[in-house]
Amino acid sequence: MSKNKRWLSVIAAVLVSSAPAFAAEVPASFDAKNCKAEYPKASLMNEEQGTVSMSFLVKADGTVADSKVEKSSGFKNLDKAAIKALSACKFKPGTKDGAPAETWTKVDYAWKLD
C-alpha cells in the first residue's frame, strides 16, 4: 500500500485532572471531532508516530491564551503541528465556582498511521 494512500487516524483525548474538593474548578475542554491537526507531510513520509502531551491556558471566552508541550511525541514536527492546530481551536471554557474562567487543561494528541 502506498504511503500517500494510507488512512490516517488521529486520536485526541482531554485529560481531566482531579481538582481538590474545596476548589470548585472545572478545566476547559474541546470537541476532538471538530478540532484535528493535519499530519505534517515530512512526518507522514518518514512514518513518524507518537503521542504529544500538552497543556493549554484557555480564557473565559474559549480562546487559547498560552500552550506548552508537557511531553514530546519524540518528533518536533508532530509536536509543533499539534500545538498549532489545537491552539486555534475554540474550547469550551473552564469554570471556577460555576462561572466561566481562565483555566489550564491537559490534552494528549496521538498521531497514528493505519
TrEMBL record:
GO biological-process terms attached to the record: protein transport; transmembrane transport
Highest taxon of the lineage: Bacteria
Provenance organism: Duganella guangzhouensis
Keyword Transmembrane carried by entry: yes
Pfam family membership, one: TonB_C
Family, per entry: Belongs to the TonB family.
Protein name, entry field: TonB family protein
InterPro entries the record matches: TonB-dependent_transducer, TonB/TolA_C, TonB_C
Cell location: Cell inner membrane
PROSITE patterns hit by this protein: TONB_CTD (PS52015)
Signal sequence region: 1-23
Principal location: membrane
Keyword tags: Cell inner membrane, Cell membrane, Membrane, Protein transport, Signal, Transmembrane, Transmembrane helix, Transport
Keyword DNA damage (UniProt): no
TonB C-terminal domain boundaries: 24-114
Taxonomic path: Bacteria, Pseudomonadati, Pseudomonadota, Betaproteobacteria, Burkholderiales
Membrane topology qualifier: Single-pass membrane protein
